[in-house]
Amino acid sequence: xxxxxLVIDDNPDIRLLVSNILKEQNFKVRTAANYDQAVFxxxxxxxxxxxxxxxxxxxxxxxxxxxxxIIKNNKLIPIIMISGHATVQIAxxxxxxxxxxxxxxPFSKEKILNYVNRALESSQLKKExxxxxxxxxxxxxxxxxxxxxxxxxxxxxxxxxxxxRILISGPTGAGKELVARKIHKNSARSKEPFIIINAALxxxxxxxxxxxxxxxxxxxxxxxxxxxxxxxxxxxxxxxEIPYETQANVLRVLIDQKFKRLNGSKDINVNIRxxxxxxxxxxxxxxxxxxxxxxxxxxxxxxxxxxxxxxxxEDIPLLIDYFKRKLxxxxxxxxxxxDISNDNLYTYNWPGNxxxxxxxxxxxxxxxxxxxxxxxxxxxxxxxxxxxxxxxGKFLLEKTFTSPLKEARKNFEKEYLLTQLKKNHxxxxxxxxxxxxxxxxxxxxxxxxxxxxxx
Length: 455
Prior knowledge:
The protein has helices at residues 12-24, 35-44, 63-73, 88-97, 109-138, 147-158, 176-186, 207-212, 225-228, 244-256, 282-287, 293-299, 316-331, 344-347, 353-367, 373-384, 389-401, 405-423, 428-435, 439-449; strands at residues 4-8, 28-32, 49-53, 79-83, 101-104, 166-169, 194-198, 214-215, 221-222, 233-237, 258-260, 267-269, 273-278, 302-305. The chain is α/β, with parallel strands linked by helices.
């Protein structure tokens, strides 16, 4: 596919010269003769490369302003600035703002073609680099065989042919974004944009601008997440954080499939699939008037719930094995020797869930090159014990020493057996063998202590 180049110059001779040089090399060319035409062409469609004259018809706006406008919309688009009477200061400013190169008039055919080809090649390399990094960061699979994860996997499969809105709930770090990406990847929209807006990270005054975009008096446009996600999927992460007043406007978009930019008068039609995620209970927020009930029902067409890692410890060995292979490949080092029977891996509460486990494996992968399994085990203990075992042990001791003997023994036995069951992924036979009890005796003890099983 031929690359498209936008040539912006108020001198018709220069405009024609540059256009003809580029067309001879099979580039598609659009032109603009002044600032307003240039803004119109940029807003209509961003080019693959722009050639911009610094001095234009408007005294208050020039090529540097157009350079800023393009970079604001897509920083990977290369821009070549040209001028016949620019100072060194202006040239330096153009490069500082983000221009790929600055050329003084007059220039030869060979010179401008050389810069154009180099700029496009550099842009392509940057795009490929970003794509590779994006794949490395987001290519992780949904790992696990626990009932809760198997249920989520089946729902994702069923949603591949659906356009339903989805609400993903679960604790921080449980994998909500990963699930959303898998749904998008399996859908008919997989080749279209996947845009994320994190409502928890926005200032209260910027929600509508980030969602709907904004139009300015000078003709510039800031495109919002809804417009950028058109034909694709929009994930609103931590949707509970959207201000109550803004929620009504989001609801209106879902009903009408159109909106107006801030300060705009024209309706923008969009066709998006909306996925929302939350670590809070939206139903409870509805009951206390912190979240609109009508919006909640519009978002919650297909609910998906992700469990905490501490409630599905049988997946920990699978996750560790997967992250070991993946992260050692990314970092170019050997896989660490992690002992998956280490009690701390199963007794730790994992407040950061799967993300925290992944971070742990990555730290160990980098820090434990050529270390023995014993050294790696100690490293895991050092990382997890201060925040997990000590605190839980302190709680257990306080609970034990402030209770009558019979109750204290019961508390200890319950905590001990729960730990061993988690370590053995709920397998009664393995747990019985490890602690030296008959299987039938262990069953009776579990029933006596009110332990029904490990989820």
